[in-house]
RNA sequence: GCGCCUGUAGCUCAGGGGAUAGAGCGCCGGCCUCCGGAGCCGGGUGCACAGGUUCGAUUCCUGUCAGGCGCACCA
């Protein structure tokens, strides 16, 4: 675990604070506290390797011109570390630090040494985090929205794991409630139809062909013996059969998508185990529940929500919300310090009252974080495809993987911010699959593998980093590549802190671009032995970083393409 | 009407309190006697509009306009 960029930033920040203190003791700068300043890599490389805005922030409290403050600070810096080559004051008052040209190359041996762990950071300090995602109704197939949730949730979980959290991936199975009733009625209608009886799938039921398939499967297994049974018994048997079938299908599709869960949590189990009742009793005891028109209501308005919410209907059946309250209580009772839910935008109205419920349960509502992802709009043949369970017309995750490919599909979802309204053009994703950015990144990896393979075939042996002097790497592309490699741990930390996988996607694309540029300008295997050694390790470090980053997005790192 | 998300290049989207705002696609030119051309190099008058905070705003705040999604004793 090492982050050379972070080490330098912290070192420079310490030096600057020291300079400010020294200047203060000489009465050159009089301020009562150190402002919250930054030490960052400037966008323009002409502005040095690192720059700070400290002088500009001090100007006002110190009543001095920013550049004057900068001058004083620079003069009062303790002896510069040897690796700082030059310090300049520029622009409105930035202090720019120029480091020795090869500082970035120090990252290379570290990367080789840490290998598959390069990029791991300690941000999470082992905190227990749960990421719940997809959690689709098990009454149907997974659609594009679920696919986005799967790609995002899995990647967020992987990034948090890499950033030092103890992560649990969980799928909440909505195997209770009204949609299960509807599911049963729809199955029953198909079953009866197959047996030549008059029956209608309810208007708001499930009309997809998969329901018919389930009914057929049930018929093959059980025959017509449920024709004579009571409807309740019939529907129970149908639901039990179809649900098991659906859930295992969902598991398989997600596995094929590269998504593995630690826990599959049944909503029904909360009812059966009395946890829903226990949670409601607890809230009742705390005074957050009242009765009105024979229904029980949660006082969401006490927690800043617009209106109160029904938890038990007049007919005595608890709502989905009641189960969700019990579920979240269960999560916190399991010891999760952070609970992250990935939800579609159509559920955003649920966020405020859920947080209210968490607070009512006596937990910190900030411990519940909800990543709201905007909806996916699907285009096919230049037209919007409306996804609807009623008509049974939607593109499934399975079809998506078949048509577009797992890696391309996952990258497409994860390369964009969850906040972006995603237009997914199926034809484009298919027809241009060779131009898909994911291949650009994977190609960089395969290309490096090819070089290393070739070197091995020539009888070459990978050098030990300690035996190589990286000062020989002087070319602009070499240094830019090494610089980018050094950034990886910081990118992981930032992606984790912001729950933003798209940052990793962008980083990898940029890294791959630098590799390709380097590759097209310079040869790795040359007649200069020293140079060859250094470049071999440079590309090997790049390969490791690409592979680790691709892993965070759930993508493969192929050695050949 | 109220709430959440979004308005950045022709298109799809990154980025984000700082010094000259990026990528992909598309379009136009170049680059293989040489480790993989799924590649490289070059070509750009763009932050919806109006106020405000700030030394500094495309970024933060308020409002306007436009689009998406919610506002059930569904989940």
Layout of secondary structure:
Elements: H1 4-25, E1 39-40, E2 50-52, H2 54-62, H3 66-75, E3 84-90, E4 94-99, H4 107-114, E5 128-132, H5 144-162, E6 166-173, H6 178-194, H7 209-222, H8 231-256, E7 263-266, H9 267-272, H10 275-286, E8 289-292, E9 295-298, E10 309-312, H11 320-333, E11 338-344, H12 349-360, E12 368-373, E13 376-380, E14 383-385, H13 397-404, H14 406-414, E15 422-425, H15 426-431, H16 437-457, H17 476-497, H18 501-521, H19 529-552
Parallel strand pairs: 5-6, 5-11, 6-7, 11-12, 13-15
Antiparallel strand pairs: 1-2, 2-4, 3-4, 8-9, 9-10, 13-14
Helix pairs in contact: 1-3, 2-3, 4-19, 5-14, 5-17, 6-7, 6-8, 7-8, 10-11, 13-14, 16-18, 16-19, 17-18, 17-19, 18-19
The chain binds one RNA strand of 75 nucleotides through α2, α6, β9, β10 and α11.
């Amino acid at each position: 675990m090492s982050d050379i960029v972070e080490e330098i930033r912290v070192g420079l920040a310490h030096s600057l604070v020291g300079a400010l203190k020294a200047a203060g003791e000489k009465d050159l700068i009089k301020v009562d506290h150190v402002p919250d300043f930054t030490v960052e890599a400037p966008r323009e490389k002409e502005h040095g390797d690192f720059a700070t805005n400290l002088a500009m922030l001090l100007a006002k409290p110190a009543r001095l011109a920013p550049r004057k403050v900068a001058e004083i600070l620079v003069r009062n810096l303790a002896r510069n570390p040897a690796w700082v080559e030059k310090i300049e004051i520029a622009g409105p008052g930035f202090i720019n630090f120029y480091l020795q040209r090869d500082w970035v190359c120090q990252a290379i041996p570290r990367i080789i040494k840490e290998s598959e762990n390069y990029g791991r950071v300690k941000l999470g300090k082992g905190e227990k985090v749960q990421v719940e995602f997809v959690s689709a109704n098990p009454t149907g197939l997974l659609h594009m929205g679920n696919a986005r949730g799967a790609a995002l949730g899995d990647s967020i979980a992987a990034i948090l794991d890499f950033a030092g959290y103890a992560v649990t991936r969980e799928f909440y199975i909505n195997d209770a409630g009204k949609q299960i009733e509807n599911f049963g009625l729809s199955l029953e209608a198909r079953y009866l139809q197959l047996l030549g009886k008059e029956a209608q799938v309810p208007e708001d039921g499930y009309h997809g062909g998969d329901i018919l398939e389930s009914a057929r499967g049930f018929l093959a297994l059980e025959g017509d013996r449920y024709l004579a049974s009571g409807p309740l018994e019939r529907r129970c048997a149908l639901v039990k059969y179809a649900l098991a079938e659906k859930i295992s299908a969902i598991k398989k599709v997600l596995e094929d998508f590269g998504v593995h869960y630690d826990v599959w949590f049944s909503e029904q189990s909360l009812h059966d185990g009395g946890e829903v009742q226990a949670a409601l009793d607890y809230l009742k005891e705390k005074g957050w529940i009242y009765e009105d028109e024979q229904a029980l209501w949660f006082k969401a308005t006490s927690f800043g929500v617009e209106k109160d919410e029904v938890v038990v209907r007049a007919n005595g059946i608890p709502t989905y919300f009641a189960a969700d309250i019990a579920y979240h209580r269960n999560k916190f009772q399991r010891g999760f310090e952070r609970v992250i839910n990935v939800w579609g935008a159509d559920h955003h109205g649920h966020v405020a009252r859920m947080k209210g419920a968490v607070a009512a349960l006596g937990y910190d509502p900030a411990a519940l974080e909800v990543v709201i992802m905007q909806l996916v709009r699907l285009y096919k043949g230049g037209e919007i495809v409306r996804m609807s369970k009623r008509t049974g017309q939607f593109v499934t995750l399975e079809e998506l993987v078949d048509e577009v490919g797992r890696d391309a599909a996952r990258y497409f979802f994860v390369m964009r911010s969850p906040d972006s309204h995603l237009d997914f053009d199926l034809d484009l994703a298919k027809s241009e699959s060779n131009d898909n950015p994911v291949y650009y990144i994977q190609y960089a990896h395969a290309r490096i593998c090819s070089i290393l393979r070739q070197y091995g075939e020539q009888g070459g042996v990978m050098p030990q980093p300690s035996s190589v002097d990286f000062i020989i790497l002087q070319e602009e592309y070499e240094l830019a590549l090494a610089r980018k490699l050094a950034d990886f741990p910081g990118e992981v930390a930032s992606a984790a802190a912001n729950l933003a996988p798209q940052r990793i996607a962008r980083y990898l694309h940029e890294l791959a671009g630098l590799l390709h540029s380097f590759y097209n300008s310079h040869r790795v295997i040359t007649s200069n032995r020293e140079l060859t050694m250094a470049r071999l390790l440079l590309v090997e470090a790049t390969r490791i970083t690409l592979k680790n980053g691709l892993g965070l997005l759930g993508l493969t790192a192929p050695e050949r393409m």
